[in-house]
Design a protein that fits this description.
397 residues; Aspartate Aminotransferase, domain 2; three-stranded antiparallel β-sheet; 14 helices; binds pyridoxal-5'-phosphate
């Protein structure tokens, strides 16, 4: 009964950890979870109020397939205001989260046998989405020394005659790293030699950047606009994960192709979420900046704590709400009951089972030496989590 397409998809590698966390909690054990990919804040009030108003006003029907004209207008204005990018509302497709914008983009772009270059560590869904679309994910392993950023040479070496696209994610999930303007320009120089390669630029963490301003590849290489799909959404910056609202901005022809797929598969996202999204971009960003400041304090705390654990290497990430320490020093070591920890998956299983700390293994993101800790958690929880991490790692010998 199951198609080859469905068989090509791997289940989420984070599921084993969250299932274990649930099981341990059910048994009454204390588990601190730094495995979630969502802000621990509430959606700002003015956004919720616009959604409530929409419900009370009877705004309950289907909207236009690509999103309400007002929302797309606000997104278009936002892209101009925040990113200095010019997109007509007709070039914007609103989706059920950025995830759907990515998935439908892959379906609209990829043919059987096409390759998509994905720098690792990568967000878990990218390779799976390429598989679903019938393409071949080609991962490029970036190095800790280069703060997990793909170099222009790595990009050049990975391009073949079958390359259809390259995925960029800056700031990154899972590492929090981001590309500088110069680095993006250098990648763009490579892409200029390969006019057949498209770019999918996932900028969903754009509002969670601590030291600098967000830079899109299109800011430094506007010549790539005709083959770039910009992905963004409301989940991370506005703490709106459950509202399921994202979008893409793309060349007209591509936006139309995605819209066609969306019209047959899902139609527009929820009308109420769209009203919330309208308020998010029309209103003040004060709440977004407050959340960013809180994330920054937590990042500084967690980085400081990690620097006190022997053998753990971690650079200070400049965005998102994750740290991705290199824990290779502890791989191959044994627990006090003689169990050898062969890889990051086993390390995370050990940490949760014996020390009550849930983290996501680097294996899930294509980087065996790391693990991802999300600091979308209270300072109190982070404090305890760091104690547990230190106790767990240093107990290995
Ligand atoms: C890099 C990245 N892109 C896209 C998404 C999807 O976000 P959403 O579908 O909630 O908008 C996520 C969520 O974890 C993410 O981390």
């Amino acid at each position: 009964m199951i198609s080859k397409r469905a068989q090509s998809v791997s289940p989420s590698e984070t599921l084993a950890i969250s299932a274990k966390a649930k099981e341990l909690k059910r048994q009454g054990k204390s588990v601190i979870s730094l495995s979630a990919g969502e802000p621990d804040f509430k959606t700002p009030k003015h956004i919720c109020e616009n959604a409530i108003k929409a419900i009370n006003n009877g705004f309950h029907g289907y909207t236009m397939n690509t999103g309400t004209p007002e929302l797309r207008e606000n997104i278009s204005n936002k892209l101009q205001r925040d990113n200095n990018l010019d997109y007509d509302p007709s070039q914007i497709v609103c989706t059920n989260g950025a995830k759907q914008a990515l998935g439908f983009s892959m379906l609209a772009m990829i043919d059987e046998g096409d390759e998509v270059i994905i720098p690792a560590p990568y967000w878990v869904s990218y390779p799976q989405m390429v598989n679903v679309a019938g393409g071949t994910p080609v991962t490029v392993r970036s190095s800790f020394e280069n703060n997990y950023r793909m170099t222009p040479k790595q990009l050049e070496d990975a391009i073949t005659e079958n390359t259809k696209a390259v995925m960029l994610c800056s700031p990154s999930n899972p590492t929090g790293t981001r590309y500088t303007a110069d680095e993006l320009r250098a990648l763009a120089d490579v892409l200029n030699d390969h006019p057949e390669v498209n770019i999918i630029s996932d900028e969903i963490y754009e509002y969670i950047i601590f030291e600098d301003e967000h830079v899109s590849i299109l800011n430094v290489a506007p010549e790539l606009k005709e083959r770039t799909v910009l992905i963004n959404g409301f989940s991370k910056g506005f703490a709106m994960t459950g509202w399921r609202l994202g979008y893409l901005a793309a060349p007209q022809e591509f936006a139309d192709a995605v819209a066609k797929i969306q019209s047959q598969e899902t139609s527009a996202p929820s009308c109420i979420s769209q009203k919330a999204g309208e308020a998010a971009y029309a209103g003040s960003l004060d709440a977004v900046h407050k959340m960013r400041e809180a994330f920054k304090k937590r990042r500084d705390f967690i980085i400081n704590e990690l620097s006190n654990i022997e053998g753990v290497k971690c650079f200070k990430p400049s965005g998102a709400f994750y740290v991705f320490p290199d824990v290779s020093h502890y791989l191959g070591k044994s627990t006090d009951n003689g169990r050898t920890i062969e890889n990051s998956t086993e390390l995370c299983m050990y940490l949760i089972e014996e020390h009550g700390l849930a983290a996501v293994p680097g294996d899930a993101f294509g980087e065996p030496n790391g693990l991802r800790l999300s600091y979308a958690a209270s300072m109190e929880e982070l404090d305890k989590a760091m104690e547990r991490l230190k106790a767990g790692l240093t107990a290995l010998s």
